Structures are given as structure tokens and as C-alpha cells.
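Incident log, support desk, overnight shift.

02:14 A customer reports that sequence design results differ from what the structure should imply. Their input is reproduced verbatim below. On-call engineer (initials T.W.) acknowledged and began investigating.
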């Protein structure tokens, strides 16, 4: 992994084609929410498929918890779409068939010259693509469990949501004084709300 990709740094705002061939930027997919970013080998890898299957149930928690999930692999668009459908996923899968992310992050899995994939990683991002934690998943048990991701997101949400503990007297006072910008989703802009309804 590139030496500047560390907790506290800003993750690059890559723009890639999604499973429908639409170009998507990570910043657009994240909005102002925390995000779990999965960098994987692709649908051919049984470890990636098992990880995605485990994330299918967790994705329902992410949705109600106002968190995002995105997967990037070196599969082409057709393979990306088939992989997503095959595991029953409902989050965006992006295709890095051109190895843009792989090369930029210096994560080519040199032990597999046949597929030329990325070394699998899971990156937990705070809002604005600030890196919170990086997991190296070359070995399956290097990948985070759902419980580890739940704990990471709890810590991130405590940092980025002023209304994490609305029982605090100062939060109740802020609400009574009309400072709704401190409360989610009121603090989001109108444009962000509209874009999420699309």
C-alpha cells in the first residue's frame, strides 16, 4: 500500500464505472456518511465471494445506520455485475479493469500474474474519505469480521455525529433553540437529501 495511505489521510476520490457502466466517484457514493470500502480480487476468488456473502446481511444494518458500502475489483463490467448479482448484493460494485486503483495504491497482487488482481483490503472511511482503519485481506482472516466493522463504525459515528448522545443536556438545549443542523439528517444539505432520493 502506498505509504501515504494511512489513518487520518484522505483517500483518493477515484471515479470508476459501476456494475451498470455508469461512472461514479467515491465522494458521490459516500455523501456525508461513513463508508466501508472493499478492494477485492473479484468474483473468481472464493474468499472475496464469501466476504461479500457475509456483507449482504450487514449491508441492511449499514442502511439503517446511515453508512455506505462500496466494492471495487479488477473485474470488467460484465464480471462485476455478475459477481454482484451472484452474491445477492445491493450496494455499488465498481470495476477497476484498467487497474487504476491497483496501480495508484501500489497493491498489485504480484503472486497472481494470471488474474493480476489487487491485494484485498477493507478501508473504513469517516466522512470526506478520511481513513479511519485499513485491513489487509490477502489472507482471509486478515479481513474484518462484521463485528469489527460494527465497532469501527460505532467509533466513527461517535466522532462525526454531534447528536450521538441526544440525552446530553446541551443537545436537548440545542434542539429547543432550533440548532437542528447538529442533528442527523437535519444537518445535511437539501441537495444531499434530494440526491439520495434518486
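02:41 Re-run completed on a clean worker. Output:
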Amino acid at each position: 500500500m502506498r505509504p501515504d495511505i494511512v489513518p487520518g489521510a484522505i483517500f483518493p476520490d477515484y471515479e470508476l464505472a459501476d456494475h451498470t457502466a455508469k461512472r461514479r466517484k467515491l465522494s458521490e457514493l459516500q455523501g456525508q456518511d461513513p463508508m466501508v470500502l472493499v478492494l477485492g480480487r473479484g468474483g473468481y476468488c472464493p474468499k472475496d465471494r464469501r466476504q461479500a456473502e457475509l456483507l449482504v446481511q450487514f449491508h441492511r444494518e449499514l442502511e439503517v445506520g446511515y453508512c455506505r458500502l462500496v466494492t471495487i475489483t479488477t473485474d470488467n463490467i460484465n464480471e462485476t455485475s455478475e459477481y454482484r448479482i451472484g452474491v445477492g448484493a445491493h450496494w455499488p460494485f465498481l470495476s477497476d479493469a484498467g487497474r487504476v486503483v491497483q496501480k495508484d495504491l501500489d497493491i498489485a497482487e504480484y503472486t497472481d500474474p494470471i488474474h493480476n488482481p489487487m491485494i484485498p483490503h477493507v478501508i473504513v472511511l469517516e466522512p470526506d474519505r478520511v481513513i479511519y482503519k485499513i485491513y489487509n485481506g490477502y489472507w482471509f482472516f486478515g479481513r474484518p469480521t462484521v463485528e469489527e466493522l460494527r465497532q469501527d463504525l460505532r467509533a466513527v459515528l461517535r466522532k462525526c455525529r454531534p447528536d450521538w448522545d441526544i440525552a446530553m443536556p446541551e443537545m436537548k438545549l440545542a434542539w429547543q433553540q432550533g440548532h437542528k443542523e447538529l442533528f442527523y439528517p437535519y444537518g445535511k444539505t437539501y441537495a444531499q437529501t434530494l440526491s439520495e432520493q434518486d
